[in-house]
Structure to design on (173 residues):
């Protein structure tokens, strides 16, 4: 409404224009802290935003806060609006990214930013990569449906029965 912010807007227009004041502030900050401007790929943005979140999911499993990776996925799918076609963050890590690639990326960013604790890979992730296992078999759950089918078939109308079938009463198995 004021026409200022990250972008400027001409009166009556919804077209975002670069704000020279914001650009000046960014440049000053970069100079003050010794940062160089660079292009950041969409892949790096995904890695920096999602991989720490997924890593935290491994910590949650490791600490017994969630009983299974599906529990975390359902929370993100139904509670946070995670894109359903990706199956949830844990499924996405296991099937789309690959646990080895996830671990390598976390280690790469940890080396670049050793003061940031969210880049420290969980022991569970490290163990799974070392053993060549994945989340689909985590905890020894042998189910009739595959991991992907469970996630993709879990809808809002079925969520309560799914939660009850999988012992999500708050007691980790």
């Amino acid at each position: 409404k004021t026409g200022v912010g990250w972008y400027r807007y001409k009166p009556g227009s919804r077209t975002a224009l670069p704000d020279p004041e914001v650009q000046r502030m960014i440049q000053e900050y970069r100079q003050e802290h010794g940062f160089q401007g660079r292009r950041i790929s969409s892949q790096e943005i995904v890695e920096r935003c999602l991989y720490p979140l997924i890593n935290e999911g491994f910590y949650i499993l490791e600490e017994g806060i969630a009983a299974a990776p599906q529990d975390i996925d359902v929370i993100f799918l139904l509670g946070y609006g995670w894109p359903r076609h990706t199956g949830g963050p844990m499924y996405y890590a296991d099937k789309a990214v690959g646990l080895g690639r996830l671990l390598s990326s976390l280690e790469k960013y940890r080396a670049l930013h050793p003061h940031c604790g969210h880049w420290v890979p969980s022991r569970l992730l490290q163990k799974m990569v070392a053993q060549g296992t994945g989340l689909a078999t985590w905890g020894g759950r042998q189910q009739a449906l595959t991991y992907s089918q469970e996630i993709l078939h879990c809808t809002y109308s079925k969520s309560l029965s799914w939660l009850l079938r999988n012992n999500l009463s708050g007691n980790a198995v």
Q: What stands out?
A: The CA atoms of residues 70 and 127 lie 19 Å apart. The two ends are 52 Å apart (CA to CA). Residues 140-152, 169-173 have pLDDT under 50 and may be disordered.
